[in-house]
Amino acid sequence: MDGRGIGHTADSSSSVSTSITRRYELADAILLVDNAAQPMQAAPCAVLRSLASSGHESKLIMCFTHFDEVKGDNLRGLPAKKNHVLSSVDNAIHAVGKALGRDAEHALSRLLPDRAVFLASIQKRLADGARFTLAELRRMLALVEASTTPPPPVEYTPVYDVANLVLSIQRATQEFHDAWHGVLGMGTRSGVAPEHWTRVKALTRHVGLLHRDEYDTLRPVADLISCFRTRSVSISRAR
């Protein structure tokens, strides 16, 4: 399944579109393609947070393109270049841990470096001598193929702290309202700029007439889901 992608938003708090998150359950593997020359900017970090909060992080495969553009005086050899890119992933995972808890951070950390592949110069036909990229492509295909194997059954029972769950729902709802009051120009919030009235009008048309839950970067349903997941994941545990 392919779509329009997640874009290149600079807002680290942005939500992943519901047109993408609703596919998590259907997919055997989730391939996150990023630029190795500028890895783990806001958009891919939002995907990591979304996968961890929804419990689909085990499906993640990270593919870093433009690996040939990773250059620097201190980056000599493939291992140094790989470590440079993976350090950005480590920082992004650490940020997810701060938001969702240590369990989410550990779940993502266990994927590295086995679930990261690096591709160079794939915008043109690969020569037979491009052994590194060809080997990485074969490894990526093997990871995708392995993801179709059903995992062994796991017995678990989610346990919730009901008192804190109620408080978390209240905090998540309040956080959502505060943010969207800023978006709609009904209040102020740091880091949230009011949208032009024509964009708000377009959003209401999409929701009311076209039966869609978002318009461009205005994603109220995705934002609300993200708030609920972020607040609730920290108080749930499995046993």
Report helical residue fraction: 40-55%
State the separation between the terminal residues, measured CA to CA.
33 Å
Strand order of the largest sheet: 1-2-3
Shape: globular
Continuous helix count: 8
Largest β-sheet summary: 3 strands, parallel
**Poorly predicted runs of 5 or more residues:** none
Estimated structural class: mainly alpha
What does this structure look like?
- The protein has 239 residues and is mainly alpha-helical.
- 47% of the residues lie in helices and 9% in strands.
- The chain contains eight helices and five strands.
- The protein has helices at residues 18-21, 42-54, 78-100, 102-109, 131-147, 162-183, 197-208, 220-233, and strands spanning 30-35, 60-65, 116-118, 158-160, 236-238.
- A three-stranded parallel sheet has the order 1-2-3, sandwiched between helices. Strands 4-5 form a two-stranded antiparallel sheet.
- Helix 2 crosses helix 8 (220-233), helix 3 packs antiparallel against helix 4 and helix 6 (162-183) runs antiparallel to helix 8.
- The protein is globular, with a radius of gyration of 20 Å.
